[in-house]
Design a protein that fits this description.
Length: 118
């Protein structure tokens, strides 16, 4: 959790403001996951702070949504082509991806429980 909070603070993702009475406030929750090795032993505890986006109302809180997700067919075609041409393929994990996106609307979220952010 500390790593996630430090990324939020480092990127200046948000700031604490007084609770606006005329705005919809989106709740937050922590999603915890244990990553295991091939022997089933826990090697990493991961924590992600997520918003409860289902409480938003289209047309009031947002106009459109977009999630960059690759289709399985596109990945298969990419891998087939790469193998045929002998290309090397590398994989990477981007931490805190959502923190780097640009929003066009103001979004108000609840402060996560148990942390005093400034």
């Amino acid at each position: 959790m500390e790593e996630e909070i430090s990324q939020i603070e480092k990127n200046e993702t948000w700031g604490l403001v007084p609770h606006p009475k005329d705005k919809n406030i989106i709740g937050t929750k922590w999603v915890l996951k244990n990553k295991m090795n091939e022997d089933g032993q826990i090697i990493i505890n991961k924590a992600r702070l997520v918003c409860k986006g289902y409480s938003q109302i289209e047309g009031i809180d947002f106009e459109e949504t977009f999630a960059p997700v690759a289709r399985v067919e596109a990945i298969t075609m990419f891998l087939d082509f790469s193998c045929a041409k002998g290309f090397k393929i590398y994989q990477m994990d981007v931490k805190s991806t959502f923190l780097n996106g640009e929003l066009m609307e103001e979004v108000y979220m609840e402060q996560p429980e148990g942390f005093d952010l400034t």
